[in-house]
Design a protein that fits this description.
Length: 387
């Protein structure tokens, strides 16, 4: 793929360098890690050392001083090598961004150097069993007790809590004047008393596991609150836009990996007198998948550059559209790639079938396809709400 029009020479070099790292690990590494129930520790550590995991974080705290544009490049290229690192979506992108933008100096010093180097990981918990797509129904609640906070609630599907040093939990505090609940972000240490997790069995071949969390009167010090108690929603979206951009990059990388494998196969596999890739019924859907991935990436680049330019509102719409387009493109690309390999598409040797479930994650998380269509219907097109 050519990147010259919308990306700088530096971006191009970053892509090439990350692809070289990813290429040294490759799909076999990733699948063997998953098979053995391990984590991608070696790749994560090396990417951290090379500065790739913190490219978006401030230089002052050990980061690369870039933006979500650069971090998305890293994730996409690793994914295109068969190594999509889901924790990049949460640890440096959401948690790192929120702390860098809204944290106190002490919080920045405590967390950012580790997040940038990859030696510290942070999970992110917003989804609740009874709220799901409707974040207005979040009930995890924080109340003050002297200087401390007491946090109580439940979360579900939170990724990587077992390997994260802490989880950034979205709770709500009661507005003293109106009694209404306002969203707030709290850093909860992995071993905080009252904080427990239960692994959810998933049909997903990924090193990162998902957890249900119970917060039972978890006592947190005053400085567990990130940012301003009264600016909750704004701060939350400052973290959620990078999450959408990064999920798009995650999906595009995976889709590229699948198309590349399918194209390699279709070039040489011949069951009649020519390679199957010469049949347009095989070639055209792969060409279409490639086009859809390119288009999704263009939108992702737009969203990332709006975000990096400080346009949170503009980035919101673009990031939703990018996540939608990338999720759909990845699902189509993987489906066609698996089909291209015939029976081999379902073998462990070729390792493509496991991407069928993995690609669908990008369609439902962090916000589902339907909720983005709702958003565009209401916010962009001005249509009335059905709910
Ligand atoms: C692998 C994986 C990792 C995840 N990691 C995290 C994480 O790290 N942290 C975290 O907080 N969460 C995480 N999630 C949760 C994810 O963000 C949620 O699954 C997602 O937001 C959807 O919520 P839900 O599952 O409750 O679905 P629901 O909200 O119950 O929705 C079910 C279906 O109904 C549709 N629907 C709902 N409301 C409407 C409507 N008004 N109009 C039309 N359709 C509607 C949805 O689109 C969806 O198809 C993860 C999920 C997965 C699968």
């Amino acid at each position: 793929m050519s990147h010259a029009i919308v990306e700088t020479e530096e971006h191009h070099d970053l892509r090439a360098a990350v692809a070289a790292l990813g290429g040294r690990y490759g799909r076999e590494y990733f699948t063997s890690v998953v098979r053995d129930g391990k984590h991608t520790d070696e790749l994560w550590a090396e990417a951290g050392k090379l500065g790739y995991l913190g490219v978006n974080l401030p230089e002052e705290f050990g980061g690369g001083g870039g933006g979500i544009t650069e971090l998305a490049i890293v994730l996409e290229e690793l994914g295109a090598c068969g190594c999509p690192l889901l924790m990049m979506v949460v640890s440096p992108a959401i948690c790192g961004t929120v702390i860098a933008r809204f944290g106190t100096d002490a919080q920045k010093r405590a967390w950012l150097p580790g997040l940038a180097a990859g030696t510290t990981k942070m999970a992110f918990g917003i989804t609740e069993p009874d709220a799901g797509s409707n974040s207005h129904r979040l009930t995890t609640t924080a109340r003050r007790d002297g200087d401390d906070w007491i946090l109580t609630g439940r979360k579900v599907f939170v990724s990587g809590v077992d390997i994260a040093d802490a989880t950034l939990v979205v709770g709500r505090t009661e507005d003293a004047r109106t009694g209404r609940l306002k969203p707030c972000l709290f850093i909860v240490g992995r071993d905080a008393p009252g904080f427990s997790r239960r692994r959810i069995a998933m049909e997903l071949a990924a090193p990162e596991k998902q957890f249900e969390l119970v917060l039972d009167e978890v006592r947190l010090p005053a400085d567990a609150l990130v940012g301003d108690e009264d600016a909750g929603l704004l701060q939350l979206f400052a973290g959620l836009n990078p999450e959408r951009v990064m999920t798009a990059a995650f999906a595009i990388g995976m889709g590229r990996y699948a198309v590349t494998r399918a194209v390699d196969y279709a070039r040489t596999r011949a069951v009649w007198d020519r390679p199957i890739g010469a049949h347009q019924a095989i070639a055209h859907p792969l060409a279409q998948a490639h086009i859809e991935l390119e288009l999704a990436r263009l939108m992702t680049q737009k969203a990332a550059s709006l975000y990096d330019a400080g346009d949170d509102a503009g980035a919101g719409e673009a990031a939703n559209m990018a996540k939608y387009a990338a999720g759909e493109a990845a699902v189509h690309a993987v489906d066609q790639a698996v089909h291209t390999l015939g029976g081999n598409g379902l073998t462990s040797e070729y390792g493509l079938a496991s991407l069928i479930t993995a690609a669908r994650v990008a369609r439902v998380a962090p916000v589902s396809r339907e909720m983005i269509l709702n958003y565009v219907s209401h916010q962009t097109l001005g249509l009335p709400k059905s709910y």
